[in-house]
Amino acid sequence: EGGRIATRHLVELGHRKIAFLTDYLDTPFHPAMKFRYQGYREILEQTKIPFNPEYLVEGERGRISARVMSKKLMMLKNPPTAIFASSDTHAIGVVDAAQEMDIKVPEELSVIGYDNIRDSAYNDLTTIDQSLFYSGAQGAQMLLDVLGNRITRPCKKYVSLKVIKRNTTAPPKS
């Protein structure tokens, strides 16, 4: 759902050239990236925006890796006007690269991250909030309930997601 929310936010601003920057999608260590990518693709399809394979960039996790990957995106012949980074750490790396390349965020490039970590607020980053503290507390409580035999069958809890609008997304330049 978060991938859909982030991509829909960019589409509603008027973006049609939206890249997705992520960890490797085929890693077993972080399957959430595949789900975020799936949501991104679903919104592109629903809004009839053609998927551009050049706009999918996968690489190592981290800010420095994201900076390198995003520079490749921004040097394309037809660069994106927006980048959905699969984590806030990646998104901060995208903003770093834009600054190094004298690309103004959000005037020339919109950037949205995912997680709403503390650094996203410091960097004034638009992001998807997935209530990390609350979901961690709920997960720990569920584990304690299972260990204490208070839950005897499989269960799920859903956490609401929302866009935290800050100053890294805006309509594309005309």
Structural classification: alpha/beta
Spatial arrangement of strands, main beta sheet: 2-1-3-4-5-6
Shape: elongated
State the separation between the terminal residues, measured CA to CA: 30 Å
Tell me the strand percentage band: 15-25%
Average the pLDDT over all residues and give the rounded result: 93
Radius of gyration: 17 Å
**SS field, number of helical segments:** 6
In this structure, how is the largest beta sheet organized? Answer: 6 strands, mixed
Short structural summary:
The chain has 174 residues and is α/β, with parallel strands linked by helices. The protein has helices spanning 2-13, 32-46, 63-74, 88-100, 118-122, 132-147; strands at residues 18-23, 56-59, 82-85, 110-115, 126-129, 162-164.
Which terms would index this structure?
single chain, 174 residues, alpha/beta, 6-stranded mixed β-sheet
Structure commentary:
- With 174 residues, the chain is an alpha/beta fold.
- Helix 1 (2-13) packs parallel to helix 2 (32-46) and helix 3 (63-74) packs across helix 4.
- The chain is elongated.
- The longest helix has 16 residues, at 132-147.
- A six-stranded mixed beta sheet has the order 2-1-3-4-5-6, sandwiched between helices.
- The chain has helices at 2-13, 32-46, 63-74, 88-100, 118-122, 132-147; strands at residues 18-23, 56-59, 82-85, 110-115, 126-129, 162-164.
